[in-house]
Design goal:
single chain, alpha/beta, 10-stranded mixed β-sheet, 8-stranded parallel β-barrel, 28% helix, 25% strand
C-alpha cells in the first residue's frame, strides 16, 4: 500500500549540482563526492595529533589530494596504495609524523621493495614482517599492530580482532616480537590497535586498556600510539553519531598516563577511512526496467554489485532516493509523495545482485516513490568501499567518478571503455 513520506525520498541535487545534469554530462552509473563533507569530517577529528586517512576506503587520486590539502596524512596497505599516495603529493621518508605509513599483515615482494625504495615507515601486523623488514632495513624504527584477543564490528566480516581475525600480532606474542626487533636493531617506536568497524565506547575502553598494557611492556621506545579506525557512520535515519569527545577522552587518558610513565611526549593518531568519506558519496543509477514479479515490484538499475558491493558482502544498508527525469510540478507538490514497497536490483546475471538485502542474502523491499524507466535512484552514503571495490564482472566498465568542490563538478575518474576491459589480454596463436 502506498504511504505518504516526506521529501528526502525525492531529490534533485547532490552538493548543489543538478542530478539530471550530472547524469547527462557524465553518464551513469556515476559516483559523486562532496568535498565539503570530507573536509568537515577531517575537522571533526582536530583534537587528535594526527589524522591518518585509511585510503583503502576510497583511494581515488582526487580524494587523496583533497585529504592532503586539508591536513590529513595517509595509510597504505599495498604497493599500489603507496604509489597512489606518492602520486597524490604525499612524501616518503621518516618525518615525524610520516606522511605515509604502510600497514599490513604481510609484505608481498612489491610492497617490500616500495617500502625500501621510498623510505616508507612500516606498521607490522605479523612477526614475520619484523624479520623481513629488519633484514632489509636494520636499525630503523617500526610500529606494531597488536591484536588484543577480542574484536568488534557491524559485521563479522569487518571484525578485525580476536582469534578468528588474521589481523595484527597476537597479544601473547609481543615478547617474541620485541626480541625479533632487537635482533635487527629495530626500535619499536609505536603501537597500533584496531578491533573492527563500528566500535562502541565499551569496547573502546577495553582497547585502551590493552593498548596501555602493551605499551608498558614495550617500554619508553614508544613515542606514538594509534587508535586505529572504525568510527561509526550513520546509514539509517536515527543512527547515532559517535560521541567524539568521549572517544577522544578515553585515548587522551591513555596517552597522558604513558607520557608520565615514559617521561616524554606521546603522539596520538587516529586512522579513519569510512568516517571521512562514506557520507560524501552518492551513486547515481538509472532505472532501466520496472518489473512486476508476483507481488513484488523491482526497480532494475544500470548499476550492480560490480559498482557497490557492500549490500551483497555485508547486507549493508544504504539510504535511497528517487530523482525524476522531469520536473513533477514544483517542490511544493513534492513535499508529500506516495511510496510503495520496491526491491532494487542491478543488471548483473546474478541472483544476489540486489541492493535491498540484509546480511545472509535475505531480500527486502524498500519504501520508495513511484518511478519509471529513465528516472534515477540515488544511493547515499556510498563514498567508502564503493568505487574502490568495483569490478568488471559481466564485463561491465568501472563507473565514472566526480568530485564536487567549490561549486564545480570535476571528473576524477573517466568511465572505462571496452579497450580498458581487455587491455593485457591476448588470444594465443
Amino acid at each position: 500500500m502506498s504511504v505518504a513520506m516526506s521529501n528526502p525520498l525525492v531529490v534533485d541535487q547532490i552538493a548543489g549540482q543538478s542530478i539530471i545534469d550530472l547524469a547527462r554530462r557524465f553518464g551513469t552509473p556515476l559516483y559523486v563526492y562532496d568535498a565539503a563533507t570530507i573536509a568537515t569530517r577531517i575537522d571533526d577529528l582536530e583534537s587528535f595529533d594526527v589524522v591518518r586517512y585509511a585510503q583503502k576506503a576510497n583511494s581515488n587520486l582526487g580524494i587523496l589530494d583533497l585529504v592532503r590539502r586539508h591536513g590529513a596524512l595517509v595509510d597504505a596497505v599495498s604497493a599500489g596504495e603507496i604509489q597512489r599516495a606518492l602520486a597524490a603529493g604525499f612524501k616518503g621518508g621518516f618525518d615525524e609524523p610520516p606522511h605515509i605509513m604502510y600497514t599490513a599483515d604481510i609484505f608481498d615482494r612489491d610492497a617490500l621493495e616500495q617500502v625500501v625504495a621510498h623510505q616508507i615507515p612500516v606498521n607490522c601486523g605479523s612477526p614475520d614482517m619484523i624479520s623481513q623488514y629488519g633484514q632489509r632495513c636494520p636499525g630503523r624504527g617500526i610500529t606494531l599492530r597488536i591484536n588484543p584477543g577480542f574484536g568488534h564490528g557491524h559485521s563479522q566480516k569487518t571484525n578485525t580482532g580476536g582469534q578468528q581475525s588474521k589481523h595484527g600480532i597476537w597479544h601473547t606474542q609481543l615478547g617474541e616480537c620485541i626480541e625479533r626487533a632487537k635482533k635487527h636493531n629495530l626500535s619499536i617506536a609505536g603501537l597500533h590497535m584496531h578491533i573492527g568497524s563500528g566500535t562502541d565506547l565499551e569496547h573502546l575502553s577495553q582497547v585502551c586498556g590493552a593498548m596501555e598494557q602493551a605499551a608498558l611492556a614495550v617500554g619508553p621506545s614508544i613515542h606514538t600510539i594509534s587508535a586505529g579506525g572504525g568510527l561509526p557512520t550513520p546509514y539509517r535515519e536515527g543512527d547515532q553519531r559517535v560521541d567524539l569527545d568521549a572517544y577522544y577522552s578515553l585515548w587522551e587518558a591513555v596517552r597522558h598516563r604513558l607520557a608520565a610513565a615514559f617521561g616524554h611526549k606521546i603522539t596520538l593518531e587516529i586512522e579513519p577511512g569510512r568516517y571521512l568519506v562514506a557520507e560524501s558519496g552518492s551513486l547515481i543509477a538509472e532505472i532501466r526496467a520496472v518489473k512486476r514479479m508476483g507481488e513484488n515490484t523491482f526497480y532494475v538499475l544500470d548499476a550492480g554489485f560490480n559498482n557497490l558491493a557492500r549490500p551483497i558482502l555485508y547486507g549493508a544498508y544504504h539510504p535511497m532516493a528517487i530523482a525524476h527525469k522531469a520536473a513533477t510540478g514544483g517542490r511544493d507538490k513534492r513535499d508529500q509523495v506516495k511510496t510503495h514497497p520496491v526491491i532494487v536490483g542491478g543488471p548483473l546475471c546474478e541472483s544476489g545482485d540486489i541492493f535491498t538485502q540484509e546480511d545472509g542474502g535475505f531480500v527486502r523491499s524498500r519504501e520508495l516513490p513511484e518511478a519509471t524507466v529513465g528516472d534515477f535512484v540515488v544511493i547515499g552514503a556510498a563514498g567508502a568501499y564503493g568505487a574502490v571495490m568495483g569490478s568488471n564482472y559481466n564485463s561491465k566498465p568501472l563507473a565514472a567518478e566526480v568530485l564536487v568542490e567549490n561549486g564545480r563538478a570535476n571528473l576524477v575518474r573517466e568511465r572505462q571503455a571496452f579497450a580498458d576491459l581487455i587491455r593485457g589480454e591476448s588470444i594465443p596463436g
